[in-house]
Design goal:
Elements lengths: L1 H25 L2 H19 L4 H39 L17
Helix pairs in contact: 1-3
Amino acid sequence: MDKYMNKLIKRYLGTFMNRSRDKIALSDKLYKRDLEDSAKLEERYNALKLDKKERMLINDYISCLMARENRMADISYIAGVGDAIRFLNAIGLLEGSKKDNGTSGTM
């Protein structure tokens, strides 16, 4: 089941994931505050007197951190969906699927 589930998740879940995650994030007070704070900090960063090489290094570092965090968010979302599917399967709520009793490995 895991191979099939992984294939479905990777192929079709992206659109749903982005919509639902964005909707939740934009209604979350902490996320909105962090968004405002990051905009203010970006303005302060842009005002720093850095030479081109220093600014490029910092920009690369920030990009790397953001890419890593975005990937971890995607992995966490996919893991949660996989866990939910395995749970529903294990308790017999998914019609047409066999209980796998956790023997097929992890996602």
